[in-house]
Design brief:
Length: about 180
């Protein structure tokens, strides 16, 4: 019996391919042809799915030159004009009268600051959420960004004198507010 068991053991070992039993051997062909899960399927937390809601906040109101002239000739605490250019730009070119300066490029978190910190940093009271804020800059890029940020920060009434901004104010005959 022992010789029969030894014979079958030797026979089965000799029939095995020594290369396929090696730990570094390549996998059989059928395994490499099987579909592999995508990286998103293997690691779902590394690839979060994003959904965009197209029914969110309405776009900011676009103001014209005449509407801005009316706004500064009839100031109201429920509507303020904010220049989002940098202070050095205001010193070299001027600003629209009654406008406050809020440099959005150097202070992108400005609209998210607490009221006390906002007033300390910008020397005017942070507008309440029910105040209409109207932004402008030199040509419209920064004012559009500021308007979007205001919407994200909770303001519902947001306006933008952005299509022409300060450049259009000067061309339209608007005077410098200092």
């Amino acid at each position: 019996m022992a010789s029969k068991r030894a014979f079958t053991s030797i026979l089965s070992r000799s029939l095995r391919n020594p290369i396929s039993n090696h730990p570094l051997s390549t996998p059989p062909l059928y395994k490499s042809l099987s579909p592999r899960p995508s990286p998103q399927a293997r690691y779902p937390l590394l690839h979060p799915q994003r959904r965009w809601d197209s029914t969110s906040a309405s776009p900011p109101k676009a103001y014209t030159f005449d509407e801005i002239k009316h706004l500064i000739s009839n100031p109201s605490p429920s509507r303020i004009l904010i220049d989002v250019r940098e202070p050095h730009e205001l010193h070299s070119t001027g600003r629209i009268p009654t406008a406050y300066n809020l440099p959005i490029a150097s202070s992108p978190d400005a609209l998210f600051l607490p009221a006390a910190d906002f007033e300390d940093k910008f020397d005017f009271a942070k507008p309440s959420a029910d105040t209409e804020v109207v932004f402008y800059c030199k040509a419209g890029v920064r004012s559009r960004t500021a308007a979007r940020m205001a919407k994200m920060a909770g303001w519902e009434k947001v306006g933008e004198y952005g299509a022409v901004g300060w450049s259009g104010w000067g061309r339209g005959g608007g005077r410098d507010g200092g």
